[in-house]
Design goal:
Number of helices of chain A: 11
Helix content of chain A: 25-40%
Strand order of the largest sheet of chain B: 2-1-3-4-5
CATH topology of the largest domain in chain A: Rossmann fold
Shape of chain A: globular
Distance between the termini of chain A: 31 Å
Order of helices and strands of chain B: HEHEHEHEEEE
Largest sheet of chain A: 5 strands, parallel
Order of helices and strands of chain A: HEHEHEHEHEHEEHEHHEHH
Structural class of chain A: alpha/beta
Strand content of chain B: 25-35%
Radius of gyration of chain A: 20 Å
Oligomer: heterodimer
CATH class of the largest domain in chain A: Alpha Beta
Helix content of chain B: 25-40%
CATH superfamily of the largest domain in chain A: Aspartate/ornithine carbamoyltransferase
Chain lengths: 326, 169
């Protein structure tokens, strides 16, 4: 099992690298815990002392504002100390190896690394080399996985549609090929037992493994969006595209963009999601992104609670092989 | 095994004790807060017996415990809900059993993260020895003398009853 590295000998989360291979019980535990962290926002002191004295380092080898900020806020609401390492100006540019840098951070008694990297597998690589007391959370690696984003999307769906994913029909629309978010969503939805999972995209933007993962692939919005409860739009990742995968932005919008007219094809109470950042007018119309069915900004707030849940589960493990707690 | 105490009678006595204590301190409109899970059951009954106006608040102190780094976060954390502004209010904190005092320490910390109350008093169904912190109840329903390896547990939410378990093995 390649994902065993995520779990300790008691079966608890030690690292959070990918949703793939985790049990439904673990995912439900993350969602339940996130639900109780939502109330921290109601406190006048928006903090709980759970991770007081712990140090969390944000290692972002790839630019990100929203993800880094929500990870930082999540850590601070848990009372952890946060280090934001700016990789562009750090010693790695002076020739220090990645592992040397990690070992230096370990020597500074960091307890968790939150890693964002352009290469698939980077977080796994780091998790395999850290000291036993350090946890690693994947904040996005290449095209592979973005598990906290996947889980905050599940959390948002559950808050709107209830805990029974078996009743739901979910459509993921757009650039699935380059999307680590879509991969994490597909695994999470399958583990949670989604009723039907659809992908709507041109042939060039659907990864070959989609159907093997139980995804029904559609190439036009009219058929794909029919009777759908949740519409997940993806960002067109032009910076990752090599070659002519799509004709042009405006033609893409004509065929696969979400406007008020195309949204009307889904169920009337369908929710619209997008992991951000939005390309307005490319994959989604402003009227829809800012409209009544959009939960895009809720996704951002929910991201804080879900990241708090993952961080406290990884850092709040019982000592290995200690048996029953007190 | 001792005979089962009459919980209903104990709750009535606690309500009377609270009424007297509140009157003596000149507190007219207190806010009651129960600690999950047993404390909420007791608080629900006391809240009804006293006919309080403010809705009942509930507190899950899991995020404020002092043993997190040893035993981790409890998987079944319930959301805390204080449906009133704590600032400047008189709080009646309710729990089922007062033992080491650590739960109450955590609850006080959590309440203060919602605001600065005018005062906090403590009502518990059962008070037993073994305090590890300088905390005491203002109103206690029952006093119990128990050995360290014994645990007293409230079952509910309907037909509240106390069970005493021994962990000596």
């Amino acid at each position: 099992m390649p994902n065993n590295i995520q779990l300790d000998s008691n079966g608890n989360l030690r690292h959070f690298l990918t949703v793939e291979g985790l049990k439904r019980q673990t995912l439900t535990e993350i969602l339940d815990l996130a639900e109780s962290f939502i109330t921290v926002d109601a406190q006048s002191v928006k903090k709980v002392p759970l991770l007081r004295g712990k140090t969390i380092a944000n290692l972002f080898f790839e630019a990100s504002t929203r993800t880094r900020t929500t990870f930082e806020l999540a850590a601070k609401r848990l009372s952890a100390d946060v280090l934001n390492i700016n990789i562009q100006t750090s010693a790695t540019t002076k020739g220090e190896s990645l592992l040397d840098m990690l070992h230096n951070l370990e020597a500074m008694h960091c307890d968790m690394f939150v890693v964002r990297h352009a290469d698939s597998g980077a977080a796994h690589f780091i998790a395999r080399h850290v000291a036993p007391h350090v946890s690693v959370v994947n904040a996005g690696d290449g095209r592979h996985a973005h598990p906290t984003q996947g889980m905050l999307d599940m959390f948002t769906i559950r808050r709107h549609k209830g805990p029974d994913f078996g009743r739901l029909r979910v459509a993921i629309v757009g650039d699935i090929m380059h999307s680590r978010v879509a991969r994490s969503q597909i695994h999470a939805l399958n583990i949670l037992g989604v009723g039907e999972l659809r992908a709507i995209a041109p042939k060039t933007l659907v990864p070959p493994e989609a159907e093997a993962l139980g995804v029904h692939v559609f190439h036009d919005m009219a058929r794909g969006l029919k009777d759908v409860d949740v519409v997940i739009m993806l960002r067109l990742q032009r910076e990752r595209m090599q070659g002519a995968l799509i004709p042009s932005g405006s033609e893409f919008f004509q065929l696969y963009g979400l406007s008020a007219d195309t949204l009307a094809l889904a169920k009337p109470d369908a929710i619209v999601m997008h992991p951000g950042p939005i390309n307005r007018g490319i994959e989604i119309d402003s009227a829809v992104a800012d409209g009544g069915q959009s939960v895009i900004l809720e996704q951002v707030s929910n991201g804080i609670a879900v990241r708090m849940a993952v961080m406290s589960m990884c850092l709040g493990r019982a000592p290995e092989a200690a048996g029953e707690g007190s | 095994m001792t005979t089962q105490p009459d919980i209903e009678q104990t709750l009535s006595a606690m309500a009377a004790g609270l009424r007297d204590t509140l009157a003596a301190r000149g507190i007219g409109n207190p806010c009651m807060v129960g600690i999950h899970t047993g404390g909420v059951w007791v608080a629900r009954r006391l809240h009804a017996l006293l006919g309080l106006d403010e809705p009942l608040g509930t507190l899950d102190i899991s995020f404020y415990r002092d043993d997190f780094s040893r035993i981790g976060v409890h998987p079944q954390v319930k959301p805390s809900n204080l449906p009133f502004d704590v600032e400047g209010r008189h709080i009646v904190l309710v729990d089922d059993v007062l033992y080491t005092g650590r739960t109450i320490r955590a609850a006080l910390n959590e309440i203060f993260d919602y605001g600065r109350p005018a005062s906090v008093m403590l009502a518990v169904l059962v008070e037993r020895g073994g305090r590890e912190l300088p905390i005491q109840a203002d109103v206690a329903g029952l006093q119990m003398d128990l050995e360290a390896d014994q645990q007293v547990k409230l079952t509910g939410p309907d037909n509240l009853a106390l069970t005493i378990q021994s962990h000596a093995e």
